[in-house]
Write a structure and sequence with these properties.
The protein is an alpha/beta fold. It contains 16 helices and 30 strands. The strands form 8 sheets. The chain has an 8-stranded parallel β-barrel with strand order 12-13-16-19-20-21-22-23.
Length: about 725
């Protein structure tokens, strides 16, 4: 505490304690409120009070608005920064004694309103602190024209982690489960005590453990608003959360408690519990735009502090560049914004023990201030090289809404990528599209065409067939077209090119023949995903046929369309068993998660090549032919320790055609003691043998596959 603390306390006691409509009368300039700590930014607890620190280069005055209650419409106290005493360069900093955790506040700034020069200061606007660690409440009605956003909360970050540390699982050994925190347990069928919350997710950890996934990737949990800026429920509610208000703050809507800041504690409890279960936590972060929208949008935070620094502008500053498709674009490669981003990432890693990040529309981070894509963009390089982030996973969605597509070329060795080409090529192959054999084989083998030229590894490819953005796996095989009518946009929204197929009926059906082929295709997709080189990502509920009723853009559906129906977990327990066995096999077999690209050469003299490809007849593949069938043999990776048991050789027979197809075991592999692991053409429980003890292939080496089926044999490598 400063030596002037006693005098500060005495003078602070003279500050007004009740709201008065005359703002000038409320404001106080007092020596009790001194510039003491220029950094870090935000509301920082010190002994005896709180230091408020905010950046603004062009503001002519700055204020802190203090509130006594979450539902209080107007501040009870306004404290002016003294431009002479409380400003150091472009940093405004003031210490307010007598405040503590739970204090509610906004910033307010005077400055020029000159849109043609990029300035949008509003002296009436209540501004969310860009570094706020928590928000409380919602937008309140704005009958007088003043927008009242959620209030910032002063947070004490102390928490009993009980010795928890990051799990540091290698990326190559990771199996990701993408989920929505609320949607995972919000349905009454979940049976949890706290549905739709961080604590509700904790209750379902045993389910995740049994499934076998090693990481959850949470759709946005940094603060976003459910109500619009006028305090009303919008026509299209923000369910997904891709509209950030405060990057440092966990979403208050997923908390059970009601006291300001309780979400901080509950989020930490969730992370701690997941780590205790051996499950890492990856956050989907949205450093590409904010909820403030374009020039017609509200002033909530960044616009009212330094608009032309925080956003990419055009036309002299009057309009916003829109590479996000959401009205504005964060100016990520400006030094101030870049600093905020890596401070934010560090905060989530250090304070919340987060294990990694998936960057939404990450190609925007490759754009300079004029919107041009540049090599080695500073913010991308900073994230990759930051020492505090060195053992976290960083994953790019390597495209944006303005046409940039950088899959395979995004940044450096530190960055993995969502592999959109994997999704498309695997979907097209199993749908039976022409000339897809070569692209499919390349994706199965780790996408060397994308990642090997730059010196990257198979684990830089995050493989997925489905994600939150698009059809679920059930809907991928049940609908030819999207059905987004419930979104209220006349079905214009959402992707039109889904590479899906309904197999004869659009949507649900009782026809057993169609249901059987759909079930086979779901198993084909799951087996392909979990036996491919790279890192698999499952969409939550795909293991038990969660449906969104054909909606492929359920961003606004906070209802049964998006929620996990837990009755499906019981109804489709055979599919869950199939998925669990596949995950367990992947975790046990380094042969399907190799850290180097396959070369076609044997691991040892006289052994099988690490990968070899064959036609159904057992001969060479004609990659130019319009075939839909393929055999792939993977030689067992030698164990790293001689005392470890040998791994398995793997033989995959894949047939995407609608009619039966005869396969012949290639001569090179006839001598091995093959046992059936998977046959998606068979009914459960014979579709998978978790103990790897299925029947041997026929003695003549001839295996007949049903249409649209996948067969996998394994043989222990005894050499």
């Amino acid at each position: 505490m400063s030596v002037d603390a006693n005098r500060w306390y005495a003078q602070a006691a003279e500050l007004p304690s009740a709201y008065h409509p005359d703002q000038a009368a409320m404001s106080q300039r007092t020596a009790a409120l001194r510039f003491a700590h220029p950094l870090p930014y935000g509301a920082i607890l010190h002994e005896g009070g709180v230091q408020f620190v905010v950046f603004s280069r062009s503001a002519t005055a700055m204020r802190v608005l203090l509130y006594d209650a979450v539902d209080q419409p107007d501040p009870s106290q306004i404290i002016d920064f003294d431009a002479d005493l409380n400003r150091w360069g472009d940093v405004w900093s003031i210490f307010v004694p007598g405040l503590g955790p739970g204090t509610l506040y906004h910033f307010q700034a005077d400055g020029p309103y000159e849109p043609h020069r990029g300035h949008r200061f509003d002296p009436q606007a209540r501004l969310i602190d860009p570094y706020a660690k928590a928000l409380a409440g919602e937008f309140m009605p704005a009958d007088d024209g003043i927008i009242r956003p959620p209030k910032c909360v002063v947070i004490d970050d102390e928490f009993d982690w009980q010795g928890d540390r990051h799990l540091r699982r290698p990326l190559s050994e990771t199996i990701i489960y993408e989920m929505h925190v609320r949607g995972f347990t919000r349905s009454p069928t979940s049976g949890v005590q706290h549905p739709g919350t961080y604590l509700g997710l904790i209750e379902k950890i045993p389910y995740l453990q049994k499934l076998g996934v090693t990481a959850v990737e949470l759709m946005p949990v940094h603060e976003f608003s459910v109500l619009d800026c006028l305090g009303k429920m919008p026509a299209h509610p923000n369910y997904w959360g891709y509209d950030p208000l405060a990057f440092f703050a966990p979403h208050r809507g997923y908390a059970v408690g009601k006291e300001p800041g309780c979400q901080v504690r509950e989020f930490k409890q969730m992370v701690r519990a997941l780590h205790q279960a051996g499950i890492e936590v990856i956050l989907d972060v949205v450093f590409n735009h904010t909820a403030e929208g374009n020039e017609r949008g509200p002033t909530l935070s960044f616009k009212g502090l330094e608009n032309r620094v925080y956003y990419m502008l055009e036309n002299g500053g009057q309009h916003y560049r829109n590479y996000s498709g959401c009205g504005n674009t964060l100016n990520g490669n400006h030094p101030i914004v870049r600093e905020m981003i890596f401070h934010c990432l560090r905060y989530w890693v250090h304070n919340y023990h987060i294990d990694g990040f998936r960057f939404d529309l990450a190609s925007i981070l490759s754009r300079d201030r004029e919107g041009n894509l540049v090599p080695n963009p500073p913010v991308v390089e900073t994230i990759a090289e930051d020492p505090l982030l060195s053992d976290t996973k960083i994953i790019a969605e390597a495209w944006d809404a303005a046409g940039a597509y950088q899959v395979g070329t995004f940044a450096s060795m530190r960055w993995a990528e969502w592999n959109g080409r994997y999704r498309d090529d695997v979907r097209r192959f199993w749908r039976g599209d022409p000339h897809t054999l070569g692209p499919f084989a390349t994706r199965l083998a780790g996408s060397s065409d994308l990642y090997q030229p730059g010196g990257r590894r198979p684990y830089h490819s995050i493989n997925f067939v489905t994600s939150h953005d698009g059809f679920t796996l059930n809907d991928l095989v049940s609908y030819n077209h999207k059905h987004n009518e419930a979104n209220g946009e006349d079905n214009r929204d959402g992707e039109n090119n889904n590479f899906s197929y309904n197999y004869g009926v659009e949507g649900p059906t009782r026809l057993e023949s169609i249901e059987r082929v759909r079930s086979q295709q779901i198993r084909n997709f799951l087996a392909t995903l979990l036996l491919s080189q790279g890192v698999p990502m499952l969409l939550f509920g795909d293991e038990c046929r969660r449906t969104q009723q054909g909606n492929n853009n359920a961003y606004c559906q906070d209802n049964e369309i998006s929620w996990f129906d837990w009755k499906l977990a019981e109804k489709h327990q055979n599919l869950r068993r199939f998925c669990e066995a596949l995950i367990a096999f992947r975790k046990a077999e380094p042969t399907v998660r190799q850290t180097n690209f396959l070369s076609g050469r044997p691991f040892r003299p006289g052994g099988l090549p690490d990968v070899s490809w064959y036609s159904p007849s057992g001969g060479p593949v004609d990659w130019t032919a319009n075939w839909h069938s393929l055999t792939c043999i993977l030689a067992a990776v030698p164990p790293s320790d001689p005392l470890e048991p040998p791994n398995h050789n793997i033989m995959l027979m894949l047939h995407a055609g609608p009619d039966a197809q005869r396969f012949v075991i290639p001569e090179i592999a006839r001598h091995l003691p093959w046992r059936l692991f998977i046959n998606t053409g068979l009914r459960p429980p014979r579709d998978i043998y978790p103990a790897l003890n299925g029947p041997s292939p026929p003695a003549d080496g001839i295996i007949d596959l049903e249409g649209r089926s996948l067969v996998c044999y394994v043989a222990r490598d005894e050499l």
